[in-house]
């Protein structure tokens, strides 16, 4: 089945896991602050449904966008934004961790990375996390328009090699929201994830091996992710504060 992403509509915002709506299946856009998550969603849906901003930290709630009945795309707050008060940051990162670790209908993460600074430690941690909890993962290298054609190709090849080596369950693509490049590939991946019947499989990965490390490791891993989200944040890469045609604040109740 294919979704018509143009018909996607804003559904609700949740401050934390308990505020999330009932859902059959959902895919979340995760990534460092300012990486281009909300812009990618707007480009994919050809609408200005998610708030974007040149100021990192624009998206502060878990925002649900409805596709077909019970199917959602989710725009997450960025990780890596340290320029809010410590209390706000901790609460916000805790809500994000809870969502990622415990949200049942969540089937996969689109991990959005600025193509000029891919695979930051927190991105790597996210990929590890996906492998650990059997979440599907697709890396979207955004702002491709900032690179020449040959740099784009090099960046994609490097990313694919990196994934093959360390996270072989994950795929990658380039995307530019401003130059409208990459939405078709992204929609194919999402269609595949959202509408494949996984009911006969234990895991979305047909042959994903059990790491044999057991539950104790899982909870250690969750708390490591917590720490990373809380502390290993702003490394000064938020240098792309250039305005972009899709910078808007269209949906007052979503952020
Ligand atoms: N040149 C270019 N700029 C982009 C692209 N995508 C996003 N941007 C710009 O990058 C900035 C951040 O974009 P957002 O989509 O708000 O980023 P975000 O990841 O949702 O950020 P948070 O909500 O803070 O986590 C904005 O100034 C966008 O205009 C792109 O493909 N090309
Ligand atoms: Mg955002």
Automatic annotation (TrEMBL):
Q: Which organism is it from?
A: Ostreibacterium oceani
Q: What sequence ranges are listed for the domain EngB-type G?
A: 23-196
Which portions of the sequence form the region Disordered?
201-255
Report the CDD domains cross-referenced here. YihA_EngB
Which HAMAP family did the record assign?
A: GTPase_EngB (MF_00321)
SUPFAM superfamilies from the xrefs?
P-loop containing nucleoside triphosphate hydrolases
Biased region (Acidic residues) positions are 208-240
A single BP term in Gene Ontology: division septum assembly
Q: Which Gene3D superfamilies match?
A: P-loop containing nucleotide triphosphate hydrolases
Q: Which Pfam families match?
A: MMR_HSR1
What lineage, starting at the top, does this entry show?
Answer: Bacteria, Pseudomonadati, Pseudomonadota, Gammaproteobacteria, Cardiobacteriales
Instruction: Give the keywords, sorted.
Output: Cell cycle, Cell division, GTP-binding, Magnesium, Metal-binding, Nucleotide-binding, Septation
Family membership, please give it. Belongs to the TRAFAC class TrmE-Era-EngA-EngB-Septin-like GTPase superfamily. EngB GTPase family.
Its biological purpose is as follows:
Necessary for normal cell division and for the maintenance of normal septation.
Q: Which domain of life is it from?
A: Bacteria
What's the protein name?
A: Probable GTP-binding protein EngB
Q: Select a single GO molecular function from the record's annotations and give it.
A: metal ion binding
Q: Which gene encodes it?
A: engB
Asked if the keyword DNA damage belongs to this entry, the reply reads no
Asked if the Swiss-Prot or TrEMBL record annotates the protein with the keyword Cell division, the reply is: yes
GO CC, alphabetical: cytosol
Instruction: Look up the record and name the cofactor or cofactors this protein needs.
Output: Mg(2+)
């Amino acid at each position: 089945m294919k979704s018509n992403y143009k018909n996607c509509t804003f559904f609700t915002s949740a401050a934390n896991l308990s505020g999330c709506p009932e859902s059959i299946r959902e895919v979340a856009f995760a990534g460092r602050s300012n990486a281009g998550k909300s812009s990618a969603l707007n480009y994919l849906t050809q609408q200005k449904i998610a708030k974007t901003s040149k100021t990192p930290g624009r998206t502060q709630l878990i925002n649900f966008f409805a596709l077909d009945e019970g199917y959602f795309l989710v725009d997450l707050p960025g990780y890596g934004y340290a320029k809010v008060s410590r209390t706000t940051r901790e609460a916000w990162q805790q809500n994000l961790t809870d969502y990622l670790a415990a949200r049942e209908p969540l089937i996969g993460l689109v991990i959005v990375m600025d193509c000029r600074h891919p695979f930051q430690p927190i991105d790597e941690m996210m990929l590890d996390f996906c492998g650990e909890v059997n979440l599907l993962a697709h890396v979207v290298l955004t702002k491709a328009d900032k690179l020449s054609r040959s740099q784009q190709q090099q960046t994609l090849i490097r990313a694919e090699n990196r994934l093959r080596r360390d996270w072989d369950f994950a795929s990658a693509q380039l995307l530019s929201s401003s130059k409208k490049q990459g939405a078709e590939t992204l929609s194919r991946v999402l269609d595949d994830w959202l509408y494949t019947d996984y009911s006969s499989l234990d895991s979305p990965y047909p042959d994903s091996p059990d790491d044999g490390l057991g539950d104790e490791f899982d909870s250690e891993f969750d708390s490591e992710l917590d720490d990373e989200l809380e502390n290993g944040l702003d490394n000064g890469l938020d240098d792309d504060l250039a305005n972009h045609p899709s910078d808007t604040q269209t949906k007052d109740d979503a952020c």
